[in-house]
What does this fold into?
Amino acid sequence: MGKLIYLDNAATTAVREEVVEAMLPYYADEYGNPSGLYEFGATSKEAIENARKKIADTLSAKPEEIYFTSGGTESDNWALNAAASASRNKKNHIITSKIEHHAILNTCEFLKTTGIEVTYIDVDENGFVNLNQLRRAIRPATALISIMFANNEIGTIQPIKEIGAIAKRHNIPFHTDAVQAFGHVNINPRQYGIDMLSASAHKFNGPKGIGFLYISDDVDIGPFIHGGGQERKKRAGTENVAGIVGMAKAAELAVSTINERAKKEIWLRDYMIRRIENEIPYVRLNGSRKRRLPGNTNFSFQFIEGESLILMLDMEGICAASGSACSSGSTKPSHVLMALGLPDNIAYSALRMTISDRNTKEEIDFAVDAVKRIVEDLRKNSSEYEEFANTEYKYK
Ligand code: PLP
It folds into this structure.
């Protein structure tokens, strides 16, 4: 196979060389248990605390507000479960949106079986949560508002400050799933009114299986994993020292280069959007044109199936994602695209290509040329398209 063109950076990112280098000593020589009382363990403990400080600095937060987890999914589970159990009997209501990641949605579905009530807020055709509906959904029993910072499929960035302000006005803790946003857009939890924030290292050029939950020291939430005394008794288990060190290095690099990377990604993204919209008919850009993640593109190509497009792009060495998810053997259109109000066939025809600062204009051109050719070929074989083209021709 020729060169790989990686355009699935929302799924995961390449681990930076400096990150691997920072991690290696903690797999090789520095393997001491951070809880050990000897000097050898203290080296690992120190590495963890340095990492905590570095990550806190990227958010202008305090080190004791950072808790290490196994990734975005665990951080999301912790935030929702803790809010639900802390308020049991008194407050039994969570507000979230219809376009959250399944780490949030499926946790909410689980919590419903334990007596928690959940309100799912609608979004508009660009994926922005309906703030009026959010205000109206608030009850005396509301224990938590959890709205994602930016969406993983369509890249829409929510009005987080406004949501934070609404939550503060009603004295309700506000959690945001910032797994797609951290390291890609500037975030200051205190300024934004965020009480809890989930992040995951593999989305910002760090290792997989490590993440963190920021918990403001203004909120008091209970432990998630019970056992030893690690993470101030809130998240037990011997720490993933190498992962934590790698995540801190990745966070430091990501946040210190955020503006220059975003500038390059936005240029490539807008170039790709322009070419696709100008050169391919019957296409829709999904997500907001203005407030979207620097590297995100998501298009629906009418009359074709996103899945077929992905498979054919793969044959040309291009990695991209579609707008549907395989669950228990059946392919369902994405809940995010459905929440935008798109008909099934348009949701099924989606293609997500997510760009990083490592991509080049040549790669984008290669990918756009391939998409153009494949969409044309697939449409030639589509009876729906044939019917449409004939009708259009007849009435011209
Ligand atoms: N939340 C969002 C918005 C995501 O995009 C993802 C990963 O795709 C997750 C949560 C889950 O993160 P992790 O893979 O670290 O468990």
Observations:
- Residues 71-73, 76, 101, 103, 148, 152, 177, 179-180, 200, 211 surround pyridoxal-5'-phosphate (CB under 6 Å).
- The chain has a mean pLDDT of 94.
- The first strand starts at residue 5 and ends at 6.
